[in-house]
Write a structure and sequence with these properties.
The chain is mainly beta. It is 13% helix and 52% strand. A six-stranded mixed β-sheet has the order 1-2-3-4-5-6, with helices on one face.
């Protein structure tokens, strides 16, 4: 996989992705060099999935303004 470094901690970055990136699923590398899958619904929302330690995935959902609306941990079976 090609590494694309993106600062996912920036509200402006999230807002720009939602506004400018076509809807779909993308794999990126964040500012902490973690592999992150992102689901983009253009002009609507964005969700990230980051693998955490011990079989957990961190899921974060953002609204179209780039603000976090949900954050949850999902147990990998």
């Amino acid at each position: 996989m090609e590494k694309i470094l993106i600062n996912m901690g920036s509200v402006e970055t999230i807002r720009n992705i939602i506004k400018n990136v076509d809807s779909g699923v993308y794999n990126i590398v964040d500012e902490k060099e973690r592999e992150v899958s992102i689901l983009v619904e253009k002009n609507n929302r964005l969700e990230t999935r980051t693998i955490k330690d011990e079989g957990w995935i961190l899921s974060m959902e953002y609204d179209k303004s780039g603000q976090v609306i949900t954050e949850s941990l999902i147990k990998i079976k």
